[in-house]
Specification:
Elements: E1 4-9, H1 18-21, E2 30-31, E3 35-36, H2 38-47, E4 52-56, H3 62-68, E5 82-86, H4 102-107, H5 109-114, E6 119-123, E7 127-128, H6 134-142, E8 147-153, E9 166-170, E10 176-181, E11 190-199, H7 200-212, H8 218-223, E12 232-236, E13 242-243, H9 247-256, H10 260-268, E14 284-285, E15 290-292, E16 295-296, E17 301-302, E18 305-307, E19 310-311, E20 316-317, E21 322-324, E22 327-328, E23 333-334, E24 339-341, E25 343-345, E26 350-351, E27 356-358, E28 365-367
Parallel strand pairs: 1-4, 1-6, 4-5, 8-12, 14-17, 15-18, 16-19, 17-20, 18-21, 19-22, 20-23, 21-24, 22-25, 23-26, 24-27, 25-28
Antiparallel strand pairs: 2-3, 6-11, 7-13, 8-11, 9-10, 9-11
GO biological process, one term: glycogen biosynthetic process
Organism: Sporomusa termitida
Keywords: Glycogen biosynthesis
């Protein structure tokens, strides 16, 4: 895959993820005990043989930069090609269905122009999956497409997975005839994975033309407005996909990872998922610990009861505490006798002795970073 480069666009709306994205970009949100959302697209790119990767930063990216560092964990610390952080002129959160990302693409156009690969794989970070892009490139060249967009097809009755997302509609030949960004009523059951394969020079031309006509959003102004003149095809992805676009979807997809089949596919189907290495001791289970159907990361110390939950690195669960259907992020501490059910605790949260917190499966309680309850 020496003929393809990757471009990760972190201008993703986080309006419905504010509780866990208030001080970090969406790509830096912790997921699955040890990972961040951006780990999945980075790993997919490198597992596909793509070694030139640019990350279009957005908002407060300090936590993201701390996580990625030189890109060594993804084999992107290279003398030739490698990892490139493309700065943004914008600050704050990315709001609305149409983020103003076109200006940042235009300001970093030299990076795209100077790259030696013919094709660009443009993607975000909120679509969590395990995919090899070699088959996508074959599909793209066989159909002589201008743009190939990846999509996941759902049962028509499963409308919950189609909310707050981009939908595509294809004809019998697989050509994309319509695209909608966050429609109120879903008119298609094909969820765009917001991953686009496009000729590098065509992308440069579309960005330049759209910018000169007052455009602000790449998906809308470069792709959707040119559907009639471009040969855009849809590539059906049949594997597991988690679209993280709200607190509810984050909670739901996190709980799906407790299914061994889902875990196996997501982390090993087309290569391993890599993340930042931390040298910590294995999780320690004390004499009174009871852990059932849960993911527990290294560095944790468990003395209470944990059921159907995900515990990140360095979590402490004291004796008598009970955690059910919950997510406890890094260095959380659950005091003696505390009870948590359907709760998401961000990093460094401390729940003191005897406290009881209960949410609902469709509306979990979210405790912000560093909070003491």
């Amino acid at each position: 895959m020496k003929n393809m480069m990757g471009l990760i666009n972190l201008h993703e709306s986080d309006e419905l993820l504010r509780e866990i994205a208030s001080y970090r970009p969406l790509g830096a949100i912790p997921f699955a005990g040890r990972y961040r959302l951006i780990d999945f697209i980075l790993s997919n790119l490198i597992n596909s043989g793509i070694t030139n990767v640019g990350i279009l930063a957005a908002g407060n990216s300090r936590s993201l930069m701390d996580h990625i560092r030189s890109g060594k964990e993804w084999d992107l610390a290279r003398k030739k090609d490698g990892l490139f952080i493309l700065p943004s002129l914008q600050t704050g959160h990315v709001q609305g269905a149409f983020p103003n990302d076109l200006a940042d693409f235009f300001n970093n156009l030299d990076y795209i122009k100077c790259s030696r690969q013919r094709y660009v794989l443009l993607a975000g970070s909120r679509m969590v999956c395990n995919i090899n892009f070699e088959s996508v490139l074959r599909f793209h060249t066989e159909r002589k497409a201008d743009i190939t967009v990846l999509y996941k097809e759902y049962d028509g009755s499963d409308t919950s997975r189609l909310k707050n997302a981009t939908l595509v509609e294809t004809d019998s030949d697989g050509r994309v005839i319509d695209m909608e960004i966050c429609p109120v009523n879903a008119r298609s059951n094909k969820l765009s994975m917001e991953m686009y394969l496009i000729d590098r020079q065509l992308l440069v031309d579309l960005i330049d033309a759209s910018m000169s006509r007052g455009g602000t959003n790449v998906a809308r102004d470069c792709f959707i407005k040119n559907l009639a003149s471009l040969r855009m095809y849809g590539y059906l992805f049949s594997g597991y996909l988690a679209c993280i676009n709200s607190v509810q979807s984050y909670f739901e997809h996190s709980r799906e990872l407790l299914n061994p089949e889902v875990w196996q596919e997501l982390f090993f189907a087309n290569g391993s998922i890599h993340t930042k290495v931390k040298d910590e001791a294995p999780a320690k289970y004390q004499q009174d610990a009871i852990v059932q159907y849960s993911l527990v990361a290294n560095g944790s110390v468990i003395a209470g009861k944990v059921e159907n939950s995900i515990l990140f690195r360095g979590v402490k669960v004291h004796k008598g505490a009970r955690i059910v259907n919950s997510i406890i992020m890094q260095k959380g501490e659950i005091g003696p006798g505390a009870v948590l059910e359907n709760v998401i605790c961000d990093k460094d949260v401390k729940i003191t002795a005897g406290k009881k917190l209960k949410g609902e499966l469709n509306h979990p309680v979210v405790i912000g970073k560093g909070t003491v309850v």
